[in-house]
Amino acid sequence: MSDSHISQLQVLRLPGERGLRVIGAVDLSTREVWRNALESATVNGAPTRLDLSELSFIDTRGTSMLLAAAHRQPGTAPLTITRPPTVLRRVLAVLCPDEPVNIVIEEQEAS
Amino acid sequence: MSTLVDTPAEPFVHPALFYRGGDEYLAGTVPFIRSGIAAGEPVAVAVPGPNLALLRAELGADAERVRLMDMGAAGRNPGRIIPGVLRAFADAHPSRPVRIIGEPIWPGRTEDEYPACVQHEALINLAFTGRDVTILCPYDTGNLPSAVLADAEATHPLLIDGTGERTSTAYSPERIIAGYNQPLPEPTGAAELTVDATNLARARVLARTQALRAGLTDDRTADVELVVTELVTNSIDHGGGTGRLRIWTADGHFVCEVHDQGTLTDPLAGRHPAAPGQHRQRGLLLVNHMSDLVRLHTGTRSTTLRVHFRL
Asked: Is residue B119 part of a domain?
């Protein structure tokens, strides 16, 4: 049985395409899971999608790690994030007043 | 034997402009703006709404050549002014002299806000040392208390009034930073939780529940959750592994506070803009951007950060 006091983060492969489905919260407690997920998603420099529609929270450090992962991607292969939570949008607006480099934000679930 | 050392002059200029009434305000600010425009220098003005309207009317078409900002909005939180207003403008013009008029202290500032305002004025001197930037700070002598005007003489190396310019003999920003670093008054009726790495999620639930109960919107509640997480994460990482979170409402504000056993050694923490490629130490910057006021007390064995959200 899970303890609701502890942040949890689950990462699943997206069926039929290159990318990950991220469920839970990114904070100090789940930072390493997030780091590993980003590394595995961007290891080959191919276009990658992160479904963040079930991400309930992400802290500033987690957002910075996402930006760093996108920065590592070749310009021809941006990181696509789907339906990010409000908190991620608000942190991105501060950290990247212009458009975030190499990140594409999708508002709808890809069909 | 004496040795002549060629010491380059400090390029950063930070005068206080003491004015009384609209005519003196315009006489002290408009020539500063127009000579900057004539020299091809980037010019920004961040002052309270009524003074912004006064300047806009006086500048006429020249207003379009100046970046105009309402300090009541952009600088409501004094902790946001250096990264979000001053550095944001100066850093956008790195190879040119830059002129800014910044008026962070006006008669409507509250007693809670003032210590953060005057510390901000002191910290400008640290933040811009070595930069070819001039920041002119108007002070309304007709409506500000004499103690505030005395503090302005400590935070500005150069003073300007209707009689001319003079070097401040009271200049001592370190004294202001230390003198206003005082214990914060105890709240009443605060919800409290000791937070460590095992219950960060519970801290967010407490923050969210209290914020919604206080009437904050969903977006502001998301900001509260982020701020609380950043503060307690700092405590876990740098403040002895735990932080005491307290949440309450008072005087029209929703207030979150985290107290820990750490010491904040960088006086500009939370005021360094987010540099490209730098991915650490951005938590306090976000706290400053998301909130309406941040108060700090730090000592050799403990630090308290108190963050206000206007209701």
From this structure: yes
Q: Do A5 and B198 touch (CB under 8 A)?
A: yes
Answer yes or no: is B117 within a domain.
yes
How many Å is the Cα radius of gyration of chain A? 13
Mutate which of A27, A72, A88 to test chain B, going by most B C-beta atoms within 10 A? Answer: A27
Write the CATH number for B280.
3.30.565.10
Q: Is there a contact between A29 and B200 if contact means CB atoms under 8 Å apart?
A: yes
Q: What is the ipTM metric for this complex? A: 0.89
Give the one of B219, B223, B233 whose C-beta lies nearest to A59's C-beta. Answer: B233
pTM attached to this predicted model: 0.91
Distance CA A37, CA A29 (A): 14
pLDDT for B64-115, tens place per residue?
999 999 999 999 999 999 999 999 999 999 999 999 999 999 999 999 999 9
The verdict on B134 and B28 lying in the same domain is yes
Containing H/E element for B35? Answer: helix B21-38
Same domain? B147 vs B206? no
pLDDT digits (tens, 9 = 90+) for A31-79: 999 999 999 888 877 778 999 999 999 999 999 999 988 888 887 778 8
Q: Which residues of A touch B282 (CB under 8 A)?
A: 60-61, 64, 95
- Same domain assignment for residues B159 and B32: yes
Asked, for residue B7, whether it belongs to a domain, the answer is: no
User: Where in the sequence is the domain holding B170, given as residue range(s)?
Assistant: 15-179
Instruction: Check if the beta carbon of residue B308 is closer than 8 Å to that of residue B253.
Output: yes
Residues B30 and B136 in one domain: yes
Segments of A1-111 assigned E as strands:
9-13, 19-26, 48-58, 79-82, 103-106
pLDDT at A102: 81
Domain identity same for B127 and B243:
no
pLDDT at A94: 85
Is B275 touching A (CB cutoff 8 A)?
A: no
Least CB–CB distance from A28: residue in B233, B286, B290 = B233
CB proximity B302 to A under 8 Å: no
User: Which pLDDT score, from 0 to 100, does residue A1 have?
Assistant: 40
Tell me how far apart the alpha carbons of residues B264 and A6 are, in angstroms, rounded to a whole number. Answer: 27
CB B137 within 8 A of CB B192: no
